[in-house]
């Protein structure tokens, strides 16, 4: 506790210091370089003939005298000393960022961060620097640690705080159900993590964690099963019921669907849905996977739904596996798809033509659809263990027609021929499918396989 109090004291002092400072007149230059973050009106940003240039550098990227140095006079000795000091501070930052705790982004853990928030005291990657800047400079002030000039006080903040102490303060009560973003995650997850952490301070104030209460009610835009149009629908998540329900009309007493949380998965898919806050809910109904596509009008709302579903799942797992740690259990809350994309696929007969299908690899299930947003896949292929006869091979068997860059998937019952348009894509598909069939089956996989075998005689499109 002593550590926390001390660090919190340092934070408060530092924040007061930096807040009262006049913003460096050149800060906006480097901020403007943060990914997809144009400088806003009114910011002190100098536009050079050749575009935005970081402070302290000329158009060739070499250090030049800043305004501050020039203001001190034309004494070349003074200027030289100032330049030397600026370089020394930049060098110091380079040393600090190499330290273990600072060598990955404080938000998404990307290696070798190139930016810093000099009032918060964290090292961050280019993408997260953009999200920090979106918070506004009253919350976070960002600078490049490579290109910008830093004041001695700002460097001291980075040294005294750093990623570890900042985490101890801003993530002190981060719940186990909350998914920390990784570099490849969709922007909505990364940005909302940064906003939750510094803007809403959700991980400091537990009462702000609306997603851990076991109940959530609200509206999401849901894609219609028949007409494909997105309409607002009321969703209700209840931990006591163990269900997620949605209603077509507010006045309806009976929900249109009631989904068991234990069978529900949620993943973000902004590109597929065509909305930055787009997500996909999936569950198995009558032996077939059902896809529901939704989005919300705000990033925080869709992330709250996602964390709320994870929270309910975690609480269920805690009860089912009392001896298992939260960190381990949190690995089993939601799954991202291993790979998705278009491929050619043939039918079971050698005379069948290749058809262009959308494929989704969800753990051990390879599903194919006519349209990526179809409510049900046309078929689902269970991927077993390689020792049981499952294999992936480049090319197609002799005498069979190859479409584009072809490869073959062998299951117990059937050989599937696929084709893609680029060799790189074929390599990626083969690699990911191979990694799945090399993984021994878990007890859960076995029960799923048994279920599929049982259903095979009645549900034609399940193949094992
Ligand atoms: Zn990052």
TrEMBL record:
Any one GO molecular-function label of the UniProt entry: zinc ion binding
Cellular localisation: Cytoplasm
Major subcellular site: cytoplasm
Gene3D superfamilies: Arf GTPase activating protein (1.10.220.150), Pleckstrin-homology domain (PH domain)/Phosphotyrosine-binding domain (PTB) (2.30.29.30)
Domain Arf-GAP: 90-211
Record carries keyword S-adenosyl-L-methionine: no
Keyword Lipid metabolism: no
One Pfam assignment: PH
SMART domains on file: ArfGap (SM00105), PH (SM00233)
GO CC annotation terms, alphabetical: cytoplasm; plasma membrane
The PH domain, residue ranges: 213-314, 336-438
Alphabetic keyword roster: Cytoplasm, GTPase activation, Metal-binding, Repeat, Zinc, Zinc-finger
PROSITE patterns named among the record's database cross-references: ARFGAP, PH_DOMAIN
PANTHER family for the chain: ARF-GAP WITH DUAL PH DOMAIN-CONTAINING PROTEIN 1, ARF-GAP WITH DUAL PH DOMAIN-CONTAINING PROTEIN 1-LIKE PROTEIN
Protein name: Arf-GAP with dual PH domain-containing protein 1
Organism: Larinioides sclopetarius
């Amino acid at each position: 506790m002593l550590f926390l109090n001390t660090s919190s004291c340092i934070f408060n002092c530092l924040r007061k210091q930096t807040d009262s400072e006049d913003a460096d007149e050149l800060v906006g230059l480097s901020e403007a370089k943060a990914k997809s973050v144009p400088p806003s009106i009114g910011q002190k940003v100098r536009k050079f003939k050749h575009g935005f240039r970081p402070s302290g550098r000329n158009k060739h990227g070499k250090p030049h005298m800043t305004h501050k140095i020039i203001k001190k006079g034309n004494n070349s000795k003074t200027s030289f000393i100032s330049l030397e000091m600026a370089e020394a501070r930049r060098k110091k930052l380079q040393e600090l960022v190499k330290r273990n705790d600072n060598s990955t982004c404080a938000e998404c853990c990307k290696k070798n961060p190139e930016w810093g928030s000099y009032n918060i005291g964290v090292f961050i990657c280019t993408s997260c620097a953009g999200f920090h800047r979106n918070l506004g400079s009253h919350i976070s002030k960002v600078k490049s640690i490579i290109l910008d000039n830093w004041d001695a006080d700002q460097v001291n903040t980075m040294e005294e705080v750093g990623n570890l102490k900042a985490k101890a303060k801003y993530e002190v009560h981060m719940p186990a159900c909350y998914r920390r973003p990784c570099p490849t995650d969709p922007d909505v997850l990364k940005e909302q993590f940064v906003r939750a952490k510094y803007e809403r301070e959700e991980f400091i104030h537990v009462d702000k964690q609306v997603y851990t209460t076991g109940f959530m009610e609200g509206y999401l835009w849901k894609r219609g099963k028949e007409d494909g149009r997105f309409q607002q629908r009321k969703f209700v998540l209840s931990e006591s019921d163990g269900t997620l329900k949605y209603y077509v009309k507010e006045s309806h007493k009976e929900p249109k669907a009631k989904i068991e949380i234990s069978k529900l998965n949620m993943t973000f898919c902004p590109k597929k849905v065509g909305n930055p806050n787009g997500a996909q809910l999936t569950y198995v109904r009558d032996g077939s996977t059902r896809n529901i596509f939704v989005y919300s009008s705000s990033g925080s709302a869709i992330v709250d739904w996602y964390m709320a579903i994870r929270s309910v799942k975690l609480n269920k797992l805690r009860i089912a596996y009392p001896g298992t740690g939260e960190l381990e259990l949190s690995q089993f809350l939601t799954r991202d798809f291993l790979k998705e994309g278009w491929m050619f696929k043939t039918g079971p007969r050698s005379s069948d033509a290749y058809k262009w299908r959308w494929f989704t690899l969800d753990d051990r299930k390879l599903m194919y659809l006519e349209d990526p947003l179809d409510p049900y896949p046309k078929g689902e292929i269970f991927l077993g263990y390689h020792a049981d006869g499952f294999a992936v091979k480049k090319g197609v068997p002799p005498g069979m027609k190859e479409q584009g860059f072809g490869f073959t998937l062998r299951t117990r019952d059937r050989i599937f021929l696929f084709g893609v348009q680029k060799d790189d894509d074929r390599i990626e598909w083969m690699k990911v499918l191979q990694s799945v069939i090399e993984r021994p089956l878990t007890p859960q996989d076995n029960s799923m396989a048994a279920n599929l075998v049982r259903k095979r005689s009645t549900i034609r499109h399940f193949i094992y």
